[in-house]
Amino acid sequence: GESPVWDDRRSLLWFADITANKIYAASPEGGDVIRHDMPAAVCSFGLADDDRLIVALRTGIHLYRPEDRALRFVCQPEPDRPAVRLNDGKVSPDGALWVGSMSELMPRARTGALYRISPDGAFSKVCDDLHVSNGLAWSPSGDVLYHADSRGIWVSRWDFDPRSGEASNRRILIELTERQGLPDGAAVDVEGNYWSAGVTAGCLNRISPAGNILQTIALPMAAPTMPCFGGKDLETMFVTSLTTDRLGRPQPGTVIAFEPGVRGIPVHRFHVGESLRG
Description:
The chain is mostly beta strands. The protein is 0% helix and 51% strand. The protein has no helices and 24 strands. Strand 3 and strand 4 form a beta hairpin. The protein is globular and about 45 Å long. The protein starts with a strand and ends in an 8-residue tail after the last strand.
């Protein structure tokens, strides 16, 4: 389980099953869970302003229209790197898609990178030398970008221009141990705190903008992968998980929901350029 995204227009929770090549849509009010089959592993995805999804597959970035299941290729940031795949991705305040990559070698090599995909489908590399790019999120005002390396064991903080999409002044916010929970996917609340899925510790860490752990919430799952805020008024936290624990033992992959006591912020939507519309 990965990449939960709350769709406020449809009142649906979207999430991915990476290795099953599927995206799911579910209503918190109950009813059917709708499955969308993809032609390759689903690494992450976000929402687009024309109600499509912007999806990072193993085969590259695509736009996907759920109503007729039409898939349109956008770009492939890493066409010649067979031992690397795309990973965590989020849409930024300026309407671009940011997506990272990760090494598939064990132990993880430092061959991952972070990319920005512009509304017209052009892409640029923001940084590289990463093990597992992860943990993308933005502050409520859009002027801070958070980014993590799950095997580099750090979360970084960048200055971000929400108009131009430029990121600068990167510095380490916090380093996390396996016992604390190495940083996987993340979300930000209205108070500006960063919620990090502690994938090695079965928890969520709520981290202040200054880099202090304010709260650790134990979860009923061994390896949480990403939180997101959703539901009415964004007061519900949804969390996905792996199908193994930190020792590789099988666990049921799942999605849970609870009320964390603080609201989230709405996700941004990918601004589809004219060349990609229709």
